[in-house]
Amino acid sequence: MKRVLVPVDFSRDSMNALNAAISVANKIESDIRFIHVRKNKDYDEPFVIEGKEQDYGQTVEEFCGQIVREYRKKLKKGNMDYVIRHGKIYKGIIEQARHDRSGLIMMGTHGVSGFEEFWLGSNAYRVVSKAPCPVITVRHGFKRKKFGKILLPIDFKRDTRQKIPFTTELARLLNAEVHVVDFRSTDRTDIKIRLKKYADQAYDYVTGHGVKAVRSSKKGGDIPETIISYAVHEDIDLISIVTFERGTPANMALSTNAQLMVNHSPIPILSIHPSTRK
């Protein structure tokens, strides 16, 4: 994984995501490029990092340069640079990731409710559902500097199992433990048998690649809520999910669940689009 791309808008949340990306990059020995997308290339204004009094510069370029000089010191082996794009935020991020052939995007998200959730869905979720590579979203307030436990939820849909290879490889690079858990909302025997088979196969794949794993099974009426509850209880650092573009009725339901996870999980979400794993 040669490069991690980090969208930065100079808010606390985006700078927190940059710190999290540095922690990951130090483990997997990759470079970091952060991207700032400006809506209007003809207008500039002074910037300060949210929560700090220090003014790092009078232009976006000066500001980004100062951030690179400050944060690059935290990287053990990789390099850090930045790029500035203009236009729609989600398009700029996706186009840059495609141009760089980024291995991973890490981005901060804000807490949402009501209309804000619709707004987040039209921006951040467009990135995680259309990006050419996996995306880790870091919710506001998450301050851990390690990713030692990764939750790999399993259901009976074929596409959702496409997250297993990348999650396993990331866990290996991070030296993380993977919790392979099948989640269900029913006690139907046929579903339980099928889920057990799929989860056991996932467990065998993970451990077969030299990654430590834990196997479990959980039932709950609301699957996203049950997944988050398990993650909080088990002190999970990262939850792996599959995201889908809205289109077919089946994908619409799946994308809604994924969007709920991205919007509301207090724990970082690793989103993998099936098309990026082919």
Short description:
It is built from 8 helices and 12 strands. The protein is an alpha/beta fold. The chain has a 10-stranded mixed beta sheet with strand order 5-2-1-6-7-12-11-8-9-10, with helices on both faces. A two-stranded antiparallel sheet has the order 3-4.
Instruction: Outline the biggest β-sheet.
Output: 10 strands, mixed
In terms of structural class, how would the helical and strand content be classed? alpha/beta
CATH topology name of the largest domain: Rossmann fold
The CATH architecture of the largest domain can be named as 3-Layer(aba) Sandwich
Number of beta strands:
12
How many domains, in number, for the residues? 2
Main sheet: strand order = 5-2-1-6-7-12-11-8-9-10
Instruction: Give the SSE string.
Output: EHEEEHEHEHEEHEHEHEHE
The rough form would be described as globular
Determine the CATH superfamily of the largest domain.
Answer: HUPs
Gyration radius (Cα, Å) is 19 Å
Q: Provide the CATH top-level class of the largest domain.
A: Alpha Beta
Distance between the termini: 16 Å
Number of helices: 8
* Uncertain regions spanning at least 5 consecutive residues: 112-121, 248-254
Rounded mean pLDDT is: 85
The share of residues in extended strands comes to: 15-25%
**Fraction in helix:** 40-55%
